[in-house]
Design goal:
Length: 276
């Protein structure tokens, strides 16, 4: 049985989920958080949903084994691929992400919204259902933006080159005359400044990370699993990529230094690198 003092588990294909981690840490400062970056398999968005589902299952198992009382799938692609499956397979609550089409529809004045996310996210059932439920009477323009995830992973967030690359990706949406842009990938909030420059003041950007953090709080509250105050939360990070590289980008994106442990995949499971 999960207990109040158990940690929250959060995962993504890489550093993108740190945009959600940051909001969870801000809203629930006394919670311990385990963050898992599957950097070895990045980008998820170019993979098949089946593959991403298998990775998501292996990571959730790893986090549950480390005592996670809730798992946050801080990745739209992994949610598209695995959310329903994870909820069936694990007994702890699983909080997922989906492109924020519903709030975008209520914000648009022109009836034209843009959604940027990965190719795999657009292929999933979750997105199709969202469009069917909330997209009536509005134009929804979608665009997978290859390269933007990698920019964030490399720490290229601002400056001329970043702006040029973002502009190239967004131009087709801007030509359609959208007035709301949904960030349907957790890497994109780190490009917010550049995105704002490119889209200009006439386009409202919708980032769901804060709402996801509130949902985590709600889920814990309902189950009496919120950690009581008293001390600051402890943060632990795992990466299937290079720990040193992850440490640097972690510091750059959210100003935290670790600890970071290297893990690896073996037979569909995540294991510690120094395992005997
Ligand atoms: N951050 C992930 C998402 O929210 C995807 C990044 C990737 O393609 O690996 O969809």
């Amino acid at each position: 049985m999960p207990a109040k003092d158990d940690p929250i588990g959060i995962f993504d294909s890489g550093v993108g989920g740190l945009s959600v981690w940051r909001e969870v840490a801000r809203l629930l400062p006394s919670e311990d958080i385990l963050y898992f970056a599957d950097s070895a398999h990045l980008p998820y968005g170019e993979r098949s949903l089946e593959e991403v589902k298998a990775f998501s299952e292996g990571i959730t198992e790893f986090l549950v084994d480390r005592g996670a009382k809730v798992v946050v799938v801080a990745c739209n692609t992994a949610s598209a691929a695995a959310l329903y499956h994870l909820r069936e397979r694990f007994s702890i609550p699983i909080v997922g992400m989906e492109p924020a089409v519903k709030p975008a529809v209520s914000l648009t004045k022109k009836g034209k919204i843009g959604v940027i996310a990965t190719k795999a996210t657009f292929q999933g059932l979750l997105f199709r259902r969202l469009v069917e439920r909330f997209g009536q009477g509005v134009e929804i323009h979608t665009r997978a933006c290859p390269g933007l995830v990698e920019m964030v992973e490399e720490g290229l967030l601002n400056g001329q080159e970043a702006e040029a690359r973002v502009r190239e990706q967004l131009e087709p949406l801007l030509r359609e005359g959208i007035d709301v842009l949904v960030l349907g990938c957790t890497h994109y909030p780190f490009l917010r400044e550049t995105l704002e420059k490119v889209v200009g003041p006439g386009v409202t950007i919708v980032d769901p990370s804060e709402a996801v953090a509130r949902q985590v709080k709600r889920v814990l509250e309902e189950r009496w699993l919120l950690r009581e105050g008293g001390r600051e939360g402890r943060y632990t990070f795992f990466t299937s990529g290079e720990p040193d590289r992850f440490r640097k980008i972690l510091q750059m994106l959210v100003g935290v230094s670790g600890p970071v442990s290297g893990v690896e995949w073996a037979g569909g499971k995540v294991i510690f690198r120094d395992y005997p």
